[in-house]
Amino acid sequence: EPEVTQTPSHQVTQMGQEVILRCVPISNHLYFYWYRQILGQKVEFLVSFYNNEISEKSEIFDDQFSVERPDGSNFTLKIRSTKLEDSAMYFCASSGGSGLGNTIYFGEGSWLTVV
Amino acid sequence: EDQVTQSPEALRLQEGESSSLNCSYTVSGLRGLFWYRQDPGKGPEFLFTLYSAGEEKEKERLKATLTKKESFLHITAPKPEDSATYLCAVQEYGGATNKLIFGTGTLLAVQP
Predict the structure, then answer these.
(1) Residues B58-80: pLDDT tens digits?
(2) How far apart are CA B88 and CA A93, in angstroms?
């Protein structure tokens, strides 16, 4: 069964450092997403990406965050200068298209710890 | 203001003891309601999508139902391997994309 794959599974970084989280979405999918989940809290939407541009972003997704699809298979989330409050599980997700109730499939997550 | 509310927060069942989880939602127009299962330290695993009131979906011991205000996830004769957090999420009409709005989940523990 096709799946979304994410790397790294866990990363520890110093406050103020740049972090890049990587994802390979399901191959024939067109929409790509990043969500995050702070420990013990709900899964929160960060950003959606379609046709090589951001289609929607949340208030969390400020200027410290950026996304990129550098080639035909990878999708990345960059945090420019990490803060302690960026510590969370980050989930990449993808969906096939913009149809009614299109199912979104999630990766296993990248656990980011900022110290 | 929470758009998706799940109850109970936690539920402990004996193996074989059937029960239901609730997800109530307030959105202007529902495009779809999703149920996911999440194991500790893992990503949400898709279970069901429901689109309209009256719709039902089943998978093994799980059945999801939908009304205009809420959804139920019924668990029949659960087994210990059903222990997980069950997440409900909605997609709204009018958004630019298919983003999901999640509830906080119900942590289910099934004891042998």
Answers:
(1) 999 999 999 999 999 999 999 99
(2) 16
